Amino acid sequence: MERLLGKQGIRMLNMITYLYSREWVTLQEISSLTNFNERTLREDIKYLNVHLHPIAIESSKKSGVRLIIPTNYSINYIYYMLLSESIEFSILEAIFFRPYDTADDLAKVLYTSPHVINKAIKRINQVIKKYNFSISSTPIKLIGDEQWITVFFRSYLLEKYDNNIPLDNELIEHVYNAVTSLCQKLGENMKPINRNLLILYVSVRVHRLKQDSSNRYSRKVPSSQSAAVNEFNYELSTYANLNEVNDFFSDICRPSDGQYICLSAEELFSLSAQSARLKEKLDSYSDLLNSIEKKLNFTFHSKKATIFNLYNISLQEEYIIPIIGNKTEFLLNHVKELIPFVYLTVSKIVMEFADHHNVDYTSLLYYVFSSTKEFFTIGRTRQPKLKVALYGRYNNLATTNNWSILTTIFEHQFDITLIESTFEDIREEINQYYDLLITEINDIEVEIDSFCIPFDISTKDIRSLQQYYFDTMNQMKASI
Predict the structure, then answer these.
(1) Of 228, 276, 411, 444, which cross-links 185 as Cys (Cβ 3.0–4.6 Å)?
(2) Which residues belong to any copy of the M protein trans-acting positive regulator (MGA) HTH domain (predicted)?
(3) 15, 75 in Cβ contact below 8 A?
């Protein structure tokens, strides 16, 4: 979908993505990455600094450029701007809310020309055809596979607007009440994040059917539903002014034959007793989690809940279209920094599982780490600790300050000892009993690895130590 940003939008996205996880970067480095000259990149930076305020790209003749994001903003704000500046995405959003009779009508709304509209629609249709829907020319509206139209706009609205979805407040409130009532009648207690995603999904479906009653899924409708589900479908169909009841529940929670997005673990395991295919998948997830428990030497508090989360997340992600950016890569990099040993252990198990079951490794790894917070609570405490010596010769306060920072950040990775003896007296002990030396002294003579970190310990120093721990654990695992 990033193709719909246009050449300039893609160029700016690539530059921002590259700057996001780095400090100072030279324009020459960005130029070699993007294959655009430095003059073009400078123009992009000027443009972005006008449109992204208060987010900014700071420039320095000596150091290069870096991305500055204030604490109350995030990269999502940048995505919002890039999507807003794209004529293609603007057209898609406009016709989602209402169809237009002609290109002239739509051009007036978007303050452009009919020629620009028609060219953009051709580009859009080339990109979205793989999802089996398109934009018709007379009238200008969405046609094709209604399920993927719904999936696309659920994904797009969530990507662009985050918490401020521009759907009618009355619609969202009505759907919220219907979903809440359904959960109460079924005795299900959904997590707020799952409930909010469900509400958004249902709201898009109701909006599409309220706009045009023919916007139904082409699928077989289940012969029977529970009384609570029937009431849910009837209430939303009435609100959408439909002559016939639409099965909103199945539209969202039964996306395909044999696929079940469930409201609770109890519902999922109950359905697995009726479906051999579902039971086989849940059993395979159970085997995967068993292997992880064994290798990390800990037990999940509730394996059923973790399997439920893993299954639901993996299925829901099948029905999300990536609009812009690669959040999976960002998030997994954070996991790698926070819990490196856990990351290495789990990633190896997941890779073997993915190869055996012919599924995408990176996606599955993302689902596994998303399935429970216990990787970040219990799991991180199971990481091997490196024995680290911290030695300062001249500035006691600086050394103590570094000790405080490092013991907090690397609580479950480093066992840090503050060396208070004269270095010459303890050199042999450091070489014999420690894995790493951190000191303020340059080029100190020791046989073990050492890091020279002055009193102003920086983010770069922290990341270097995180990478060192990761590399050490990786070497240790490779040698086993």
Answers:
(1) 228
(2) 9-51
(3) no
Count the alpha carbons within 13 Å of 33 in the hemisphere toward its beta carbon: 17
Whether 151 contacts 96, CB under 8 Å: no
The token pair that represents 220 in the structure block = 């077989």
- 98 Cβ partners below 8 Å, 6+ apart? 211
Beta-carbon count within 10 A of 140 CB: 21
Q: Domain segments of the chain: what residues?
A: 2-83, 86-144, 169-253, 265-380, 384-479
**For the segment 207-230, what is each residue's pLDDT rounded down to a tens digit?**
999 999 999 987 766 667 899 999
Question: In the structure encoding, which two tokens stand for residue 124, read together?
Answer: 């859009």
Percent over 70 (pLDDT), the chain: 98
CATH topology identical between 2-83 and 384-479: no
Q: Quick one: fold of 384-479? A: Rossmann fold (3.40.50)
CA dihedral for 231, 233, 236, 240, sign (positive or negative): negative
The residue type of 175 is V
| Cα gap 366→355, rounded to integer Å | 16
Describe the chain by its helix, strand, coil percentages, rounded to 5: 60, 10, 30
Count of C-beta atoms within a 10 Å radius of residue 253 = 19
- 86-144, CATH topology level: Arc Repressor Mutant, subunit A (1.10.10)
The strand pairing partners of 144, in sequence order, are 133
What's the rounded Cα separation, in Å, for the pair 207 and 150?
10
Residue type, 421: S
Beta partners for residue 100, in sequence order: 140
| Residue 448, token pair as written in the block | 């073990």
Can you give the pLDDT at residue 395?
62
User: Which one, of 429, 440, 435, lies nearest residue 399 by Cα?
Assistant: 440
